[in-house]
Structure formats: structure tokens, C-alpha cells
């Protein structure tokens, strides 16, 4: 079955780093960039070079370090930003400038006090100028999610003519519904002249918890790049979570889309970013949360012990987790208890299990979770009873 590639554009070091309190120094950014390169990311957005000397330095050092991925720097649609980004990216093997401007009526009116025609002119000028430094120029239409499709198509057409290779369609405020975002991408695919010269990119924010769903709707309707971050970090409620889109495309072969990301590295990648940014991952976070492969109710545990596919839709090893865990709580049954005893080296008989299960329930009602130390104490109680 043939499958089309979706490029993964990681913006952990740019949009992800915009999280309050998540500031990274250059050394930490280099550690993350090197690991992202090994993970199989296609584009690493390394920063916003004009924003500070520190960010300029980081983008420049990342450009020297990264071997495989394209390295990208963000700019606004002005000459100074573009010149500074080009300078920071000068050592990159495959540099990309990511320039753009707000296209929704509220951005045009309140941010720029301008007109639709003027915005198109500024967008075209920015792309042409960026193109004088690098071949690969991505254009973002900020707040595209709330920009009307007909005007957005005109902007896209104009910037493709000016040389843009990628068109980023951000749902900057995380407002779109998946159906609506997917239709926007489809509309652009069908109505922008010259669209075959560029690829459409999804950049979705998670204000309504829809970033991943919107990105998937985007690629199902013709986009070929997803912008995302490790652990879904980013402004406000965050961006599309990289680990989620990678695993959705891996598990849903029916979509006939794939990425080149080595999913087995996702777990360690997530911990690295969480540790360096000081941002803990919520336990119930899809794919990489501590509970993503943990089963605690008796009914589920019994099913998983018999065959993991009863309650798991992916293999934990595929995301770098060695095995599913069976958590012992007051909701656990005998089979989970026997399984955990076996795990620590005790093959208990049916009669022994009957006794141990009574002891187990006493402890489980008093504690949130029964651990291996509790199991040892229970075995001691069993030995005392026998002798
Ligand atoms: O959310 C957004 O619109 C952005 C752009 C700057 C690409 O992050
Ligand atoms: Zn963003």
C-alpha cells in the first residue's frame, strides 16, 4: 500500500519555548536540537533570531550542529528580521527562513492598522527578500484560522508567485473545529493557482484541545507538513503534540500517510524536554504520560494479561516504553495480583492466592497503590501462616 510522507516541523525550541518559565539556554537548546535530528525530524525551528542576542546565538550554533534536518528561523515580514535570520542561519546545511504576517481582519485592523491589499504587498516583499538569502522560504499567514478563505487564497497565490516553498496556515488562536480546518486546507488546495509549487503546512494551537485533531484533518485534506512540539508545549494551551501526530499516522495505516520519525525515541525525547524545561508531563498525557500504558481496573488488567490487544491499541515498545504496567489498586483482581507476584519471582498456587488476595484488599483499601514492598510483606504473612 503506497503511503505519502508528512514532513514533521518541530517548533519546541521556538513556539514551545514561549511557555512562561520554560526558557532554555544555548547549551540546553543544542542538546535538544541534536536529539531532534536523531529522532528523524524534517525541520527544526531553532528560534526567532532577531528577538534577542541569546536567541541569535542559539540559532547560529544549532545551524552548525544539525546534520540532517533543515534548520529554520522565524521572522516578521520586515527586512531587519530577515537579514538577522539569514545571518544566524548562514552555517546551516539546509537553511529555511519562516516569514509571515497576520491575515485575519482583526490582525489587519488592530495589529497593523492596514488594508488587505497592503498586507499582500508586505507578504510578497518579505518572501522575495527572504528568497534573496535562501532558497527555502516558508510563509505563515498568522491567524489563518480566522481569515476568510477567499482572501487567504489570494495571499497564498501571491506568496507562491514570490517564491514561497511552504505555506503555513496557522490556527493561531486554536479556534477552528477539525472539519472547518480540514475544509480550509481543501479549499486552498483546490483554489490557489500554483499550489503544486508549494506544500501546505498545519500549525495548530490547543486552546480548545483540538490541535492534534485539526492537524490530522489538515493532512487528510492535502497538507503535507505538520508543525508541532514535544509534549505539546507552546503558547497558552500549547501546540500540536509531536508524539500524538506521529503515532496517529503510524497506527492508522488506513490514512496512507507516514512520517520518518523514529517513534521508539519518543519517550526519552519527552523526558529530556520535560527535564530541561522544568515542565512535568501530566500522567494521563497521550502516548508519553506515565499512565499511557498503565492498567489499574480489574476488568482491564485481566484482559491485558490474557492478551494486551484487548485494551491497548499500540505496542508500548513502539514509543520506547519497555512494557505495559499493571498497577495494583483496590479495583484490581486476583489475576493482576498473581501476575505481579510472578513478576517479582513468586509463582503462587490457587490456595496461596486466595489467602494473599484477602491480605491485599486490606492494604489496597488503606493505600492508593500497592507496591512491591507491600507484596513482600504479604509473602512474609503467608510464610508465617504456613509455618
Ligand atoms: O501560531 C502562530 O501563528 C505562529 C506563527 C508565528 C507561525 O506561531
Ligand atoms: Zn504558534
Descriptive account of the structure:
There is one protein chain. With 387 residues, the chain is α/β, with parallel strands linked by helices. The chain has 14 helices and twelve strands. The chain has helices at residues 26-39, 53-65, 79-88, 105-111, 116-131, 149-161, 178-191, 211-220, 242-251, 266-277, 298-306, 334-343, 350-366, 372-386; strands spanning 4-5, 7-10, 43-47, 70-74, 95-102, 136-142, 166-171, 199-204, 225-228, 257-258, 294-295, 325-326. The strands form three sheets. An eight-stranded parallel beta barrel has the order 2-3-4-5-6-7-8-9, surrounded by eight helices. The protein has a two-stranded parallel sheet with strand order 1-10. Helix 8 links the parallel strand 8 (199-204) and strand 9 (225-228). Helix 5 (116-131) runs parallel beside helix 6 (149-161), helix 6 packs across helix 7 (178-191) and helix 11 (298-306) crosses helix 12. The chain is elongated. It starts with a strand and ends with a helix. The model has no long low-confidence stretch (mean pLDDT 96). Bound molecules: 3-methyl-2-oxobutanoic acid and zinc ion. Zinc ion is lined by residues 15, 170, 172, 203, 205, 235.
List the helices and strands and how they pair.
Layout: E1 4-5, E2 7-10, H1 26-39, E3 43-47, H2 53-65, E4 70-74, H3 79-88, E5 95-102, H4 105-111, H5 116-131, E6 136-142, H6 149-161, E7 166-171, H7 178-191, E8 199-204, H8 211-220, E9 225-228, H9 242-251, E10 257-258, H10 266-277, E11 294-295, H11 298-306, E12 325-326, H12 334-343, H13 350-366, H14 372-386
Parallel strand pairs: 1-10, 2-3, 2-9, 3-4, 4-5, 5-6, 6-7, 7-8, 8-9, 11-12
Helix pairs in contact: 1-2, 1-10, 2-3, 5-6, 6-7, 7-8, 11-12, 13-14
The structure holds 3-methyl-2-oxobutanoic acid and zinc ion.
Amino acid at each position: 500500500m503506497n503511503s505519502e510522507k508528512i514532513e514533521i516541523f518541530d517548533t519546541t525550541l521556538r513556539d514551545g519555548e514561549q511557555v512562561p518559565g520554560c526558557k532554555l539556554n544555548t547549551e540546553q537548546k543544542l542538546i535538544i536540537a541534536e536529539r531532534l535530528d536523531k529522532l528523524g525530524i524534517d525541520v527544526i525551528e531553532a528560534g526567532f533570531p532577531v528577538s534577542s542576542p541569546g536567541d541569535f546565538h542559539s540559532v547560529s550554533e544549532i545551524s552548525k550542529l544539525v546534520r540532517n534536518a533543515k534548520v529554520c528561523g522565524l521572522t516578521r515580514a520586515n527586512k531587519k528580521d530577515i537579514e538577522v535570520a539569514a545571518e544566524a542561519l548562514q552555517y546551516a546545511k539546509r537553511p529555511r527562513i519562516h516569514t509571515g504576517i497576520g491575515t485575519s481582519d482583526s490582525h489587519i485592523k488592530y495589529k497593523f492598522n492596514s488594508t488587505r491589499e497592503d498586507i499582500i504587498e508586505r507578504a510578497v516583499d518579505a518572501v522575495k527578500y527572504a528568497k534573496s538569502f535562501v532558497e527555502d522560504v516558508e510563509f505563515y499567514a498568522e491567524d489563518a484560522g480566522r481569515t476568510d478563505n477567499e482572501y487567504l487564497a489570494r495571499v497564498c497565490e501571491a506568496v507562491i508567485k514570490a517564491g514561497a516553498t511552504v505555506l503555513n496556515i496557522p490556527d493561531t488562536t486554536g479556534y477552528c473545529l477539525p472539519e472547518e480546518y480540514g475544509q480550509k486546507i481543501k479549499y486552498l488546495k483546490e483554489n490557489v493557482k500554483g499550489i503544486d509549487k508549494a506544500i501546505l503546512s498545519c500549525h495548530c494551537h490547543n486552546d480548545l484541545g483540538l490541535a492534534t485533531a485539526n492537524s490530522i484533518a489538515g493532512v487528510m485534506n492535502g497538507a503535507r507538513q505538520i508543525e508541532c512540539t514535544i509534549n505539546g508545549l507552546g503558547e497558552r494551551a500549547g501546540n500540536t503534540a509531536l508524539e500524538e501526530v506521529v503515532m496517529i499516522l503510524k497506527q492508522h495505516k488506513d490514512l496512507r500517510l507516514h512520517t520518518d520519525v523514529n517513534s521508539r525515541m519518543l519517550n526519552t525525547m519527552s523526558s529530556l524536554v520535560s527535564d530541561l524545561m522544568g515542565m512535568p508531563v501530566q500522567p494521563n498525557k497521550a502516548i508519553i504520560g506515565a499512565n499511557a500504558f498503565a492498567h489499574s481496573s480489574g476488568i482491564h488488567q485481566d484482559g491485558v494479561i490474557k492478551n494486551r490487544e484487548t485494551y491497548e491499541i499500540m505496542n508500548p515498545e513502539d514509543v520506547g516504553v519497555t512494557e505495559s504496567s499493571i498497577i495494583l489498586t483496590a479495583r484490581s483482581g486476583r489475576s493482576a495480583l498473581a501476575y505481579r507476584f510472578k513478576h517479582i519471582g513468586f509463582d503462587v498456587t490457587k490456595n496461596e492466592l486466595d489467602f494473599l488476595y484477602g491480605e491485599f484488599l486490606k492494604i489496597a483499601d488503606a493505600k492508593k497503590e500497592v507496591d512491591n514492598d507491600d507484596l513482600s510483606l504479604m509473602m512474609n504473612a503467608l510464610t508465617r501462616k504456613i509455618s
